[in-house]
């Protein structure tokens, strides 16, 4: 049996989680998370969300799966044969299809336009825009949380998708 998973640039993943769980929550748990972040950090800004993620990853043995480092899923008890990067998923899945001799479902890389924030009502806010809101000190703490994701999966903390 071949074991594989998909991975994503940690900071891009956090921006996606922030938009999905804080900015545009569509369910009760998202609204609960908004309240937790606001109670702990006085607002629901991206910076406050990052502080929440850092704190949860430092104090919890089981942080939320949307911001738990992917490296927590790997190790001696869960050795993966392959990982597929979201950023190169179409090519990666073709390679996996060749290896497994199995055709997978088609994949669409379209983003969810309803969850796009705009800067000045025009340009779509990027991961780089969000990360520019974060202080260097906080970026270093965040890097420490996701350090092994950067190392294991070849992502650069200064290069955003």
Largest sheet: 2 strands, parallel
Into how many domains do the coordinates divide?
1
**Helix-strand string:** EHHHEHEEHH
Distance between the termini: 32 Å
Which word captures the global form? globular
Counting helices, strands and paired strands, the structural category is: mainly alpha
For the largest sheet, list the strands in their spatial order.
1-2
Which quaternary structure do these chains form? single chain
Helix content: 40-55%
The count of DSSP E runs of length 2 or more, i.e. the number of strands, is: 4
Count of separate DSSP helical elements: 6
Mean pLDDT: 81
Q: Indicate the proportion of strand residues.
A: 5-15%
Runs in which pLDDT lies below 50 for 5 or more consecutive residues are none
Rounded to an integer, what's the Rg over CA atoms?
17 Å
Describe this structure in words.
The chain is mostly helical and 161 residues long. It has one domain (4-153). 48% of the residues lie in helices and 7% in strands. It has helices at 10-23, 28-41, 46-59, 89-100, 127-131, 136-153; strands spanning 4-7, 82-85, 118-119, 123-124. Strands 1-2 form a two-stranded parallel sheet. A two-stranded antiparallel sheet has the order 3-4. Strand 3 (118-119) and strand 4 form a beta hairpin. Helix 2 (28-41) crosses helix 3 (46-59). The radius of gyration is 17 Å and the shape is globular. The two termini are 32 Å apart. The mean pLDDT is 81.
């Amino acid at each position: 049996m071949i074991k594989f998973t998909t991975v994503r640039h940690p900071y891009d993943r956090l921006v996606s989680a922030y938009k999905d769980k804080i900015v545009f929550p569509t369910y009760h748990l998202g609204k609960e998370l908004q309240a937790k972040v606001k109670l702990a950090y006085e607002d629901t800004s991206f910076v406050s969300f990052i502080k929440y993620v850092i704190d949860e990853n430092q104090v919890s043995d089981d942080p939320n799966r949307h911001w738990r480092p992917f490296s927590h899923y790997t190790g001696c008890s869960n050795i993966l044969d392959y990982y597929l990067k979201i950023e190169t998923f179409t090519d990666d899945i073709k390679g996996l299809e060749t290896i497994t001799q199995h055709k997978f479902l088609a994949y669409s890389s379209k983003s969810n336009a309803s969850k796009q924030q705009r800067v000045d009502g025009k340009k779509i806010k990027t991961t780089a825009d969000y990360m520019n809101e974060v202080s260097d000190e906080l970026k270093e703490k965040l890097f420490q949380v996701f350090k092994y994701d950067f190392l294991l999966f070849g992502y650069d903390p200064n290069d955003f998708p």
